[in-house]
Amino acid sequence: MAIDQKTQEELKVKLMEEKAQLEGELGRFAKKTSEGEYKTNFPDDIGNRRDENATEVEEYTDKIALEDSLETQLKDVLDALKKMDEGTYGADENTGEDIDINRLQAYPAARTNITKS
């Protein structure tokens, strides 16, 4: 099953919107590096009190985890867009079979089908 042009264009729009959203979220607390990755900003104004510092460090580590998650999602979106350009979009990375269109419509950056047990 090949994805028809209209459906692929609709999925591309969704991917572009998700890309913009993810980049916006990352931009709120991280800076994009020259390599295209993001680096979480460490607070410049660390206080003199231990409890303030502990809170700032905890927030920083939480942001690092969020950065990692958002970057992974962004990579999936960018990979899906690249596959569209290459003409390989919609194929399961493990089996090579077509990914169910309902899955792609729900999550356009899907890399694989959902396995049924």
Topology (SSEs and partners):
Layout: H1 5-29, E1 30-32, E2 38-40, H2 50-86, H3 101-106
Antiparallel strand pairs: 1-2
Helix pairs in contact: 1-2
Can you tell me about this structure?
The protein is mainly alpha-helical. The protein has a single domain (5-106), classed as Up-down Bundle (Four Helix Bundle (Hemerythrin (Met), subunit A)). It is built from three helices and two strands, in the order αββαα. The protein has a two-stranded antiparallel ribbon with strand order 1-2. A hairpin with a 5-residue loop joins strand 1 (30-32) and strand 2. Helix 1 runs antiparallel to helix 2. It is elongated and about 60 Å long. The two termini are 23 Å apart. The model has no long low-confidence stretch (mean pLDDT 88).
Notable features of this structure?
117 residues; mainly alpha; Four Helix Bundle (Hemerythrin (Met), subunit A); two-stranded antiparallel ribbon; 58% helix; elongated
Summarize the structure.
This protein has 117 residues and is mostly helical. It has helices at residues 5-29, 50-86, 101-106, and strands at residues 30-32, 38-40.
> Helicity, in percent?
55-70%
Radius of gyration: 19 Å
- Taken as a percent bin, the fraction of beta residues is 5-15%
Uncertain segments:
none
Encode the helix/strand succession as letters.
Answer: HEEHH
What structural class do the secondary elements suggest?
A: mainly alpha
Q: What characteristic shape results from the CA principal axes? A: elongated
What is the class in the CATH system?
Answer: Mainly Alpha
The first-to-last residue Cα distance is: 23 Å
- What is the CATH architecture descriptor? Up-down Bundle
Strand order in space, largest sheet: 1-2
In total, the number of domains comes to 1
Largest sheet: 2 strands, antiparallel
